Amino acid sequence: MTQFQVSSSTDDCDVDREAGTIRLDALAIRVVGEAVLAGQGFRFLNVNIPPGSTILSAALKICAKLTNTGATTDLLIEGDDEDDPATFSTYDDWNTRPRTTENVTWDLPTFTAETWYTSIDFKAIIQEIINRPGWASGNALALLCKATGKAPASTGRRWGYSWDDTPGKAVILDVSWAPPAGLPAHTKTELVLVL
Are 113 and 66 in contact (CB under 8 A)? Predict the structure, then answer.
């Protein structure tokens, strides 16, 4: 298993889809909000997965900023269908990025502050991205997410830490993969060691 963590201010974003606004320096990521139709973007640098690899598992890890146990909505997770996506800039940039065909819907659990939560597996999303003809090891990779609705009450909020609040608690992408059969044996060994 290899972890890739958001590593700069504009590599995570907090989106209000109704207002058409984006916050690049937010002190929290509203995974689900009761007053906004939330969206998010997460970009990970130096994703050293070689072309032709087989993705074995993939998941997001979010560190909860607040404790909220009320009813909530789900989170749709899609991939940014680009070879080497740029950092986030504007709402239109987030909204018009090409999405992968593969996606998953995560039935969000209750959140307890300072606890890490792992999404359902979405290996097919990562596989679709690295199968692109222009993918290269070391490229950036981005995920685009959105709540399927608003929380019915404030207790249904699901907020996570952003990089701007606490870099060490920023969102993480966990990926396991098997290297392509054609790689030299020494390269295979290196890749196995970092899983």
Answer: yes
- Using one digit for the tens of pLDDT, what is the confidence trace for 163-176? 999 999 999 999 99
Token look-up 């997965």 returns 49
SS (H, E, C) 116-159: EEECCCCHHHHHHHHCCCCCCCCEEEEEEEEECCCCCCHHHCEE
pTM of the model: 0.91
Q: Which residue matches tokens 């054609």?
A: 182
- What distance in Å separates the CA atoms of residue 186 and residue 131, rounded to the nearest whole number? 23
Show the CA angle centred on residue 146, arms to residues 76 and 170, nearest 5°.
Answer: 100
**Beta partners for residue 41, in sequence order:** 13, 144
Query: Can you tell me whether residue 183 is helix, strand or coil?
Result: coil
The Cα–Cα gap between 35 and 5 comes to 28
Q: In which residue are the tokens 């700069």 written? A: 8
Instruction: Tell me the per-residue pLDDT of 86-132, one tens digit each, with 9 for 90 and over.
Output: 999 999 999 999 999 999 999 999 999 999 999 999 999 999 999 99
Extract the runs of DSSP E, i.e. beta strands, from 24-121: 29-32, 38-47, 54-63, 75-80, 99-106, 116-118
